[in-house]
Structures are given as structure tokens and as C-alpha cells.
Request: fold
Amino acid sequence: MVSQQGRLPLVLALGGLVLGATQARPQVCNPGGFHGYDPLPTSVPAAKNCVGLFWCHPPQLVFEGYEPRPAACDPETGTCVVRANVLGTFPGSSGNSTAIGFSDSPTKLIWTLGGGFVGACGSFAGRIQNDQGRVWIQAGNFSCDNLGGTTGTGVYTLTALQCDGACPHTTTLDVDLTAPAIAASLCSPPVDFTCNENDCETCLAAGGGAGGASVGGGPSAGGPGTGPKALLYYRAGGVGHPGTPGAADHNLILGRYWSHSYAERVVEDGGVAWLLTRFGAFATFVDGNADGLYDPVSPGDEYRILEKLPDGSFELRDLDGTVDRFDPGHPPEPEREAEARRA
Reply:
């Protein structure tokens, strides 16, 4: 093992002596454009802890959240760039800018995806030499209504390296820049039921505002979902709401917030599938291991299983064996099998 004292002469020999204050150079991230580093004026005092000359404390990385760009962009009504922001803290590191012998970047930031190099910030030509800053990486073309169109997505790993070669410290942080993760933060959550759908003949979607009216002259009585023929339903904030799954196609056919007895369909995007129900609400399913079986996520009392078949259609299986089939690209009338099948 090479001692910390043994490392220092090598650093000095490779980096060259720097007497007095070094002139700050423009920050360089390579390749640039889709990730970067913005220094902050915050001072984080710390003691010299590397051979009595340098400030080499473990970096701190804290995920701050997602930010649409430009600031006025609304992903529920348009397409935005979305940044994932991480607050990086490097205690005392600003002192390294005046330390004798520290000509390299005190802090280096490296992005990887699945183990492969994506980009880095911090070099001799573009030093990071302050105590705190915002590290970011971004995805493009994000829209709440079209998650599948998002570019640059993935679960990235950010590695912060302090005092490379002298008294090194490394901290890593996984940053989820997938479309579903962004949507969970920036998009209005779909409306869920307060009870399972089979019992919702006599109850309302969560939040109220749902009602049924018979189509074709038949009466509507006994609560939502009753009557001899197809029923129309209106759910304010439900299906067709800007930014919710399938809103654009739904509104062309039925109009915002309206649904009817045969208007159920499945909208899939990036491993997440939403059932747009006849009551104008949503049920959410996730295929966590990409095996075609989507497990229910919400509402909490949803128990059915959604399966994607090789031809792109979906089957929704109830515990009583009933199967609803949804053909791809055909809104919004599922073909209910005449004979229920046992799961």
C-alpha cells in the first residue's frame, strides 16, 4: 500500500507546483450539453486533512429532484427538457485553489450508465474548486402524455472523486432519470378508485364528481353503472385531463372527462400501463421485470393482473376468471370473452 505521504510527490511531479492563488478556469464537462456542473457560492469550512496541505474530505451527494427546462415549460401541456439535480458538497475544497502543488481539479464528477462512461466534469482545463455546486443530467422530449418519446433516459450513476491521487475519497449516487420516475414527480397523478371496480356499481370514483346517464333512451337509476344500455360518465380531472395517459386520443373520440360503458382501454408507456376505466378514472400497473405481466400499483385495492400478449394486445384477468381483452390501436372497446376463464 502506498502511504498518503508517498502519493504527494507524484501529484506534485505530475501536476506542477502552483505558488499562491490559481486563476479559476472555465468549467469543462465532456461531452457537454446534456450534463453539467453549476458552482454555488456556499462556503463549507473544514480542516486540512491531507498531509497538512490539502482539503480532501469525502464528497456529499444529495438528490434534489427534477426541473423542467426552460423554467416556464409545463410537461402536462407540452414537451420539455427535464434535469435531474444533485447537490454536491465538497467541504473545504475551495482552499485547494490556493494550495501549493494542487494544479489538477480538486473535484471530479463522472457519470456512468450500466457501467459505461457517459461524461465527466472536472479537469486541469476546467477545475471544480469550490465547496458546493449543483450537478445535473437531463433527458429530452419529455411529455406527460407521451412518456415513450423521452430521450436520454436511464438510471445513471454519479461518482464524485475528491483529491484524486493524493488522499482520494469517492462517493456514488444512483440517479433515476427514467420517464416513469420523472412523471411521478412532474405529472398530475391519475384519478384512482376508492373501491375495486366490481363494487363500483354503487360507489363513486375517488373525489366524487362521477355520474352515469343512459344512452339510447333507457333510464339511469340506482347509481353509476346501472341501466339497461350503455351509460355515459363524467369525471372532472379524470380521463382526458391534460397530461394524463392517453389524453390526446381520448379527447378526439369522447371529449375531456367523458367516458362510457365500453370506453375502457389500456395505454402503455415505458413499463407502465394504465387502464382507462369506463368510470373516467385510472388503474395503474407496472411490469417490473419486463416479463409481460403487469402487477397492480394503484388503487390500493386493485387485485387484477394485466398481461401483454405477443401480438401487442392486453388481457386483464379478474379473480373470478373473467378476462377482458384489449386489442392494440383500437380505442376504446375491449372484447369481453363470452365464457369466463379461470386464471
User: Anything to note?
Assistant: The first helix runs from residue 4 to 15. The first strand starts at residue 29 and ends at 30. The chain has three helices and 20 strands. The chain has two domains: 4-186, 197-336.
